[in-house]
Amino acid sequence: MKTVVLDGYTLNPGDLSWDWLANIGEYEVFERTAPADVAKRLRDADAALTNKVVIDESVMSLLPRLKYIGVLATGYNVVDLEAAKKRHIVVTNIPAYSTDSVAQSVFALLLEVTNRVGHYAAANNSADGTPSRWAQSIDFTWRDTPLTELSGKLFGIVGMGRIGQAVARIAQAFGMKVQAVTSKQQGELPQDVAKVDLDTLFRTSDVVSLHCPLTPDTRHLVDAKRLAQMKPAAILINTSRGPVVDEGALAEALRAGILAAACVDVLDREPPAADCPLLSAPRCFITPHVAWATAEARRRLMTICRQNLEAFVDGKPVNVV
To answer: Quick check: helix, strand or coil at residue 251?
Structure first.
């Protein structure tokens, strides 16, 4: 059996190992694969591992030997599932590997807005020859931004899956009140999490954090109308999927002062085009899709990937989508 990894670099930039694939058979690892090279690289493969490289019907039609596609992520929209089913190709994903890492990133972003640790650390490190702003202060303290306490604020969550629930627990640990938009019933929610509708959540929350999947119903869920409902001091956080937010509308809302700040780890197009409106929007804190990528989460991802492939080889596939 031959396994081909199409885009292994983001999972394993060199600190993990693919050697376990040798226990299954022949294998080949590519750091990245251009669309034009997908079919050629999978020509002799029985199993393909992909993170963001698309494997659609046009590719599958050229690969009669392919029996398995392992997606190196939770989302599996890069694979044409109908085409795979028609060809009896098993497709698996990696669920729940990054829950704690993404939840942690939500608060790393939020705390950068409320406490501006990065800003103050940079302003007071003179390693590059720039004088410390604090050293020039006539007072014992120096600050040039507002600082905000989270305790007592209202935290709104859209989507109460594993990540949403982990975020709720952390918010409560900060002393925040939590409300959520979810398909779950009130009795299914964690203690002291109130179920509300979207209008209520956006109108009343001090922080809104998005944790919903990307579907036709959630594409541009956060548009100009929804943003207009937010408090001027509110903060929007998106670590779910880029297209859940209308980027143009969000950029305009930030420029108009409709909300205090936005924090995003995902964008509509990744990497973004130079003219992405959020890149130049004021008070927009952008991280480059790294919330999932802690060393611990990537090790879990690799472990589950191995378990998925070994289970398939044993004839008992798991995490099938």
So the answer is: helix
